[in-house]
Amino acid sequence: MGFLIERNSKLEALNHTVFLMINAGASPAPEILFFATFLAQWLIGGVPLLLAGLWLWGTRGDRAVVLVATTSIAFSLACNQLVRSLWPHPRPFMISLGHNFLSHRPEASFPSDHSTAFFVLGLCLMLTSLPRLGGIVVLLGIVVGWSRIYLGVHFPFDIFGSMLFAIPSSWLVLFVFTRWRLGERVLDFLERLYRLVFAMPITKGWVRP
């Protein structure tokens, strides 16, 4: 038990050290602060926009990717909540470490939901039919992770943990959907519902049938 406590202490010390290396100083450059804030708060909006675009104007294969990615993200975020309830690791500003430039509730930090969404989406794209786009999304997830460390609301291990959790969750959902052809049946239902709800835009040619 003593060995585990000592090892955990060393990992936490490393976590703090790397955080302080990335975290903004007391007076960061305004343009960098603005850029980091945009990445940390607003870039996440690109995830649902990308999924919506692939569904509305993509092929059936693209829509299958949307189904897998959306389910994987939902599953991963639910797992994040479970991890936080079992291990409520504090955020840097909750222990007065470094500098904080982004308003956030004082709640558990591990793992990062923002990074999880990007990593899961990127991995789903890479594992299916859009590997290049997936690689770009994963890189964006790393950049968003940097911004949230820079602004003082996450530790480096929160971002790294998001990446580790994204791998099994994405693979598991993809396996379930393909192993018993569940994905095809769900996709058939969703496409029928979509064509019913979006009948007018489809007829006008605004979106793909």
Could you describe the 3D structure shown?
The N and C termini lie far apart (60 Å). It is elongated, with a radius of gyration of 20 Å. 73% of the residues lie in helices and 0% in strands. The chain has a single domain, classed as Vanadium-containing Chloroperoxidase, domain 1 (Up-down Bundle). By secondary structure, the chain is mainly α. The longest helix is centred in the middle third of the chain and has 27 residues.
Structural class: mainly alpha
Helix tally? 9
CATH C-level class is Mainly Alpha
Q: Any guess at the CATH architecture? A: Up-down Bundle
Q: Supply Rg.
A: 20 Å
Gross geometry = elongated
Which homologous superfamily in CATH is the superfamily? Answer: Phosphatidic acid phosphatase type 2/haloperoxidase
How widely separated are the two ends?
Answer: 60 Å
Please tally the β strands and state the result: 0
Helix and strand element order: HHHHHHHHH
Uncertain regions spanning at least 5 consecutive residues: 1-7
Instruction: Report the major sheet.
Output: none
What do we call the CATH topology? Vanadium-containing Chloroperoxidase, domain 1
Q: What number is the mean pLDDT?
A: 91
Q: Give the % helix.
A: over 70%
Number of domains: 1
Strand content: under 5%
